[in-house]
Amino acid sequence: MPGSDEERQEVDLEMPEDNGESSETEFELSPDDKMEALLRQETEKSNEFLDRLQRLQAEFENYRKRMDARFTEAARFAGEGIMLKVIEIRDNMERALEVDFAKDPSSAKAGIEGILKQTDKLLQAEEVRPIESLGKVFDPYYQHAVRTTNDSEKPDGVITEEYQRGYMIREKVLRPAVVCVNRHESDSAEDSVQVKPEDNGEDK
Predict the structure, then answer these.
(1) Which of 33, 96, 164, 198 could link 29 by a cystine bridge, Cβ 3.0 to 4.6 Å?
(2) Mean of the per-residue pLDDT values of the chain
(3) How far apart, in whole angstroms, are the C-alpha atoms of residue 48 and residue 64?
(4) Residue 161 structural domain
């Protein structure tokens, strides 16, 4: 038979209480152990961040390579498109040369004018436009001065002649104009330096 109530109470009093918590003195970490655990935790975080950064860098590098390849391919096809248009212009020039200029000068002139219009259309499509120079103030970014003249009736520094037309492509000089500049002062060494052709390879 099971024991009496008094015996059971005595047994219960003798059993130690277990509240699920360990003794502080038994599981308390030393300062060195705490520092080591904290260092290990921070190291794991650092490694995780480094791994993420390396993956992002690799993804960005792959993205950059894909974009470079697309731009290269697009530029190649754009160049091919321009060349096809140039070939069409050349075909028309060949046809124009087949005309007898002496017997039919009007047809020959009309053919050349048609080629000129076709060329202008191509340049316009590529955002190429001529530089207006005559009567403008000389600017070494847009023009190359190869000579000067002395005309007191015209303003100083104004372009009086254009030997070769210049062109812009969008906002950049594609080819500067070759011009003559009016100078009121004597043609001295200093003037020659001022109208000396400049290097237009850089943006203004």
Answers:
(1) 33
(2) 81
(3) 24
(4) 129-194
